[in-house]
Amino acid sequence: MIQKLTLKVYPEGWGRTAYRVIEVGDQMTLEKLCSTILDAFDFDHDHLYAFHMDNNVNSRMSEYSFNGWGARESRVNVKLSKFGLVKGQKFVLHYDFGDDWLFRIGVQKVEEAEKVNTKIIKSVGEVDQYPEYDEDGEW
Predict the structure, then answer these.
(1) Which of 10, 26, 70, 99 suits a disulfide with 81, CB 3.0-4.6 Å?
(2) 50-54: long-range pairs with CB below 8 Å, 24+
(3) Could you state, in order of their start, the residue ranges of all structural domains in the chain?
């Protein structure tokens, strides 16, 4: 048996206006979860990222990061099952260290399943990865 995880994901500051509820299996890797989240928000896949499993972006204790340029080994091939996620648990995806997108992730439900198809079960609002700035540098 595997675990089916229902996750609510939203960019920090957008929790009520833009979020996705996603079902994934606990055999999914962090790398695949990142891709799933980026696809759900129509973001490009062209930046470095890190997961902070303790929900603290300033902590390096539970960081799982990707480095596609070989400076250090990627740690995102780890499966979600490693973390024993439970309902109510929160963690964060820090994407694009220049623009600092923080995707807050909350575990809404954990269920046993024989098979899990990754899918978006709720989609609210839109977020522009590269918003237009006005002449004052404001969004």
Answers:
(1) 26
(2) 50/93, 50/94, 51/76, 51/91, 51/92, 51/93, 51/94, 52/91, 52/92, 52/94, 53/83, 53/91, 54/91
(3) 2-124
